[in-house]
Amino acid sequence: MAWRSYQEIDTFVRSLNTEALAHYDKVFTTLAPVEQWMRKQRDITFHYPKMVRESYQADEEAIANALAAAADDTSSVTLTDTYAGISLDFADAVAVHLLGFKLPQEEEKMRRLIQALRDARYALGVFVVAAVSTYLSSREPGVIATVE
After folding, report:
1. Mean pLDDT for the stretch of residues 5-22
2. Is the pLDDT of residue 3 over 80?
């Protein structure tokens, strides 16, 4: 792990309770089976991808292919008077196609991936809460204050 290269971080992480460390490890063990898929997705979508005409014409442009594949899907857009209420269901359809799964044939494979991501997100959350709590409790009184 990269944190082992830094003595102060290594000491801090090792000071965390056993449950926090187990959740930290779970983040990586849960994601290990989908690491190759995640790297591919990162390469496709990281930052602001641009479409390359030659790739599109060769039917190798991932985002264009996802848009084209979703064209026949029934979808909707829900607009409300608040930002939180807006729902762009068509974006979900495009995302499913961009993930690279052929539905319904690979639905179970996609469900396993989503479960791995969900488990990793939960484990990371538990680890972060423990790390922040440990850090805050290690500070001298008055160094950290809350404002209501």
Report:
1. 89
2. no
